[in-house]
């Protein structure tokens, strides 16, 4: 009998919304979690076809002589130019998508979670069975980011938030919404989604 693949579920939230905390709750329920942002960094250094594409589009300076990614060089190019941001995303996200699917096939679970900061912005949510959006008010998000990174100004944080889709836009695209702004307890929200996904799983 062939092994059925788990449901592919994406989880995202704007900066400071607390998706990492929510993922920890899911991991306590023994749900495997794939961190797309960490994995993207790994693939940019260790996936030869992707490295070739990055060098073609951004030049040999995108990598150091030892083969490691020159993050600062790429960040300087990409951060100030929306077209370059779109270009790097168009190279990296398909590679991450394929890597995630291969990883998911090796998991023994009714569903798996793909944690990604820009799940909705990049359109990668379309390749998933369900999506979860973690929300919190802008005020709470700014407070959280400042407490973990005091060097960031309110203005800098607002600029980052502006580059992401609004919560209203993401809520329309999401299958499930978790409110993480102290207005409702988080664990009962997670357990409700978990039980629904376990029922829907193959």
Question: What would you say this structure looks like, in words?
Answer:
This is Dephospho-CoA kinase. It is found in: Cytoplasm. GO terms for molecular function: ATP binding; dephospho-CoA kinase activity. ATP binds at residues 16-21. There is one protein chain. The model has no long low-confidence stretch (mean pLDDT 92). A five-stranded parallel sheet has the order 2-3-1-4-5, with helices on both faces. Helices cover 53% and strands 12% of the residues. The chain has one domain (7-142, 168-200): P-loop containing nucleotide triphosphate hydrolases (Rossmann fold, 3-Layer(aba) Sandwich), CATH 3.40.50.300. It is α/β, with parallel strands linked by helices and 202 residues long. It is built from nine helices and five strands; from the N terminus they run βαβααααββαααβα. The radius of gyration is 18 Å and the shape is globular.
Going by helix content, strand content and strand pairing, the class is: alpha/beta
Residue share in helices?
A: 40-55%
Secondary structure: number of strands: 5
CATH superfamily: P-loop containing nucleotide triphosphate hydrolases
Integer average pLDDT = 92
CATH topology: Rossmann fold
Principal-axes geometry comes out as: globular
Radius of gyration, CA atoms, in whole angstroms: 18 Å
Order of helices and strands: EHEHHHHEEHHHEH
Give the helix/strand layout.
Elements: E1 7-13, H1 19-28, E2 33-35, H2 36-46, H3 48-58, H4 71-79, H5 82-105, E3 111-115, E4 130-135, H6 138-148, H7 154-163, H8 167-173, E5 176-179, H9 186-200
Parallel strand pairs: 1-3, 1-4, 2-3, 4-5
